[in-house]
Amino acid sequence: MAEIRVLAEDPSTARVFRRFWPYLRPHRAIFAAALLANVASSAAVVGIAPAIGLGVDAVTDGDERRLWWAVALMAGLVLARMVLLRSSEVLLSAAGERTIRGLRDLVVDRLGRAPLRFIEAHRTGDLLRRSTGEISDLTLFLRDQLPNLLGFGLTVALTTALLLVYSLLLALLLLALFMPVAILVVAWFTRGAPRAFGRQAAADATMTATFTETLNAHEALVAPGRPQEWVRRFRVDNDELLRAADRTIAVQSRLELFGMIEGLATAALLLLSVWLVRAGQVSVGTVVVFVVATRNLFESMLTLSGLAGQAQLARTGLARLTDLLDALAPAGRAPAEPPAGTELLAGTELPARGDLVADGLSFGYAEGADVLRDVSVTFPSGDRAGLVGVTGSGKTTLAKLLTGLYEPDVGTVRYGGVDLRVADPDQVRARIVLIPQQVHIITGTLAENLALAPGEPDRAAMERAVELLGLGDWTARLGGLDADVGMRGSRLSAGERQIVGLLRAGLVDPPVLLLDEATADLDPDAARRLETAVERLRPGRTLVVIAHRPTTIERLPRIVRVESGRLN
Ligand SMILES: Nc1ncnc2c1ncn2[C@@H]1O[C@H](COP(=O)(O)OP(=O)(O)OP(=O)(O)O)[C@@H](O)[C@H]1O
């Protein structure tokens, strides 16, 4: 378990925007321009109330010229607000879309390079939710909600400043009476929000994960006539999601208290204003400005409170996405404690040929439960050996360690004297190739499947590999390189899948080949083809076969036996 960091189901949202800033930094100029347009647009909105006040005072004073000025000012402010707000929205959308595109590329790139143990240790649906769903939520937030959040936030700040300038007495009354209540409401929301939204996001991911897994197990569930099991499994997670969503709604509704505060504030303000106008302390225009601005203030706060829920949702998603990106950041993947005496420079060149040596390997999938213990074995260059042992003894695990797919918890795997953990990963994949029991096949043609081999092989290289392995008649029968292999390779048998694996290995031309023989009973035809292909691929290479079939074991000159995680 040394090599990976397991993702938190509900990671902390503390300082998440700051942690996320490096991913936004490349587009900071557009974000800054959008922010400026937003500030100017909010200032224009806030300026409308004084313009109305100016007009009202002009009417009460009978000053027609001032009235026209006030009307022109109002029209100008409304127009400016429209243009500036639209510019801010367009700029934020542009910056947001660019950020998101970069993020999608980054997530796929990091997942593509992630250690195999990392992928195995997480549910596919959870990774799927983080790398697609959370990013889509973030897109929505950046494009639609962030402009409003900024706009209304600034409107609240500028309106408060305006009220203070117009009448200190009225403004202080408003602040003293209602600010503490408003702060209490926000604090109440903030206390419950991270947990409620975090729980909802985790429940959403669990539901996606269960759905994905159940979909993959469709055959196993439907074959014995138990499709209702699918519904049962899904319903448990769906119910939890409903409970989590109910809780989120309850927390969000705390913010609706702002509506009530607004009513009380306006009533109190009007009462005091009448008294102040009578006492000659303020003009009618000032009162109008106050009423309009207060309404503006509370409406903005109400909208802000709705947006705060969305922002919390985005924050939770962002925390889960940042957790994924951080866990897969290149620096976090350095070997925990490089063994003494090894070349420590990452990306060390591997020699073209060399012995493959496992030295004192121990490895476990879970803490304290080693699957392999103190395993040492050498496969000299050009060796031909079989790994045998009962099912579950650790053969496949050893093969994955020997190919660098897993990092050992203790001990080293060296090729040509270089520790695989510090070797250039591309070179490791080019030197040592494992053909697994279940070769992964993608939906598409045979050629598209072969193109997955490292090194971007072209058509001519594929035809050469088919020729080299003596598989011309097999590909011809299938329908050539452009033959459709069906949904996730449904047209291919277990043996034929391994033939595709061998063709991929032929394209890489590695000096070391490990073959995890398919345990499924192969039809004699597929078995013969596989054996011929392996023999043709073998000359000059080290070949290690995890052998299950007696005929294979008989033909191998050397046998290494794995028993309960040890060699003997
Ligand atoms: N990804 C995994 N996560 C957790 N445990 C695993 C994982 N893969 C294998 N194991 C466990 O490790 C042990 C060794 O498994 P491994 O697949 O290496 O055995 P094997 O000898 O290759 O078996 P087989 O001949 O059936 O392929 C088993 O107990 C298995 O349950």
Automatic annotation (TrEMBL):
Which controlled-vocabulary keywords does the entry list?
ATP-binding, Membrane, Nucleotide-binding, Transmembrane, Transmembrane helix
Q: Does Zinc-finger show up as a keyword for this record?
A: no
InterPro entries hit by this protein: AAA+_ATPase (IPR003593), ABC1_TM_dom (IPR011527), ABC1_TM_sf (IPR036640), ABC_transporter-like_ATP-bd (IPR003439), P-loop_NTPase (IPR027417), Type_1_exporter (IPR039421)
Q: Which domain of life is it from?
A: Bacteria
Domain (ABC transporter) spans 356-568
Protein's membrane topology:
Multi-pass membrane protein
Q: Which Gene3D superfamilies match?
A: ABC transporter type 1, transmembrane domain (1.20.1560.10), P-loop containing nucleotide triphosphate hydrolases (3.40.50.300)
Where is it mostly found?
Answer: membrane
This protein is called what? ABC transporter transmembrane region
Q: Which organism is it from?
A: Pseudofrankia inefficax (strain DSM 45817 / CECT 9037 / DDB 130130 / EuI1c) (Frankia inefficax)
Its lineage reads: Bacteria, Bacillati, Actinomycetota, Actinomycetes, Frankiales
